[in-house]
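Chapter review: from sequence to fold.
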Amino acid sequence: MKAASFAFVAISSIVPSVLGGTYSRSENIVGQGFYNSFNFEAIGDPTNGRVQYVDKATAMSRNLTFASGNTFILRADSTSVTGAPGRPSVRIRTNNAYTTHVAVFDVAHMPQGCGWETDEANWPRGGEVDILEGVNDQGSNQVTLHTTSGCTMPASRTQTGTSLQLDCNWAINGNTGCGVRVNTASSYGPSFNANGGGWFAIERTNTFINVWFWPRNAGNVPADVRSGGTSVNTGSWGTPTANFPNTSCNFPSFFDANNIIINLTFCGDWAGAVYGSSGCPSTCNNFVDNNPSAFTNAYFQFNSINIYK
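The C-alpha cell string follows.
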C-alpha cells in the first residue's frame, strides 16, 4: 500500500518532536466514498513497473475495485496472461492535498506474493512519506521519507522502530531515503493479513512527522483510533513507531501539500532489482506476465481512511 506523499518543517532541535494534539475529523472515507475521494490515474508507472494502470470505469467493470458497506477493495488482475506494458492494476490519488493533519488507515488486507511493490516515485520535488513500503513478502514494513539534498534525520529518536539510512536525499543509494524499520512482524505481508490487518496512522505538523502502527489484536490500540471517531488526540497514542523531527531538515523547503496515493505495481525499479534474491521463481517480468493465479492475494482491503485537521 503506497500511502502517500506528505510534508514537514523545521524550527530548532530544542522543539519537542513527539508532542501530539487534538484534531477534528474532516473526511470519513468508507466504502463507496473511495470513488468520490480519489481520482483514478491511468498513467505509465513512475517506478517502471510491469503494470498497466486502468481508469475508473475499467477498474469497476473488471472488478479490480469494488465497494460494499464499509469495505473498499483495490486489486490487480488475477485471471489473464499478460504482456507489455504489464498486468492491469489500479493507482488512485486523493482529490484533496494535505499539510498539517492526521490520517488513520484501517486496513484489513494488503497484497502478498512475488513481484509486487508498494512504492511511489513522485521524487524528488514536493517530498514524499511512504507509510507502507515493501516488496514481495520480505520482512516487516518500512516508513520512509524521500527528499532532495539537505534533509537528514538524527540517529537517536523517540520511536519504537529502528532507524536505517539517515539521509533522506533521493539521490543517495538509489532512492533509499531515510527509513525506519517497523519492529513488528505483523506490520507487513502474509503476517499482517493472517492477523486481520491493523491501523496505520500519520501525524504531520510544522515541526515533526510521526507514524504509528497497531496490529488488529493489539491491546494498546487507542480508543479514538479503533472507533474511527470524530476527533483524535495523538498525545495519548504513546511512542510513535517512526519519528522524523526537524532537527536537520527544514520541512517547508522540502515538502509541499501532498496527496495520499494508493497503488499496486509489479517488478519495476525496486521489486525488480531485488527479485533474484527474493526466492521467487523465473524472472520478475516473466512471472508477472504468465502466472495470473499467483496474484489472487494481491489486493488491498480498506475498512476506512479518516482524515483529521
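Two observations follow directly from the output. Residues 1-17, 115-124 have pLDDT under 50 and may be disordered. The first helix runs from residue 33 to 37.
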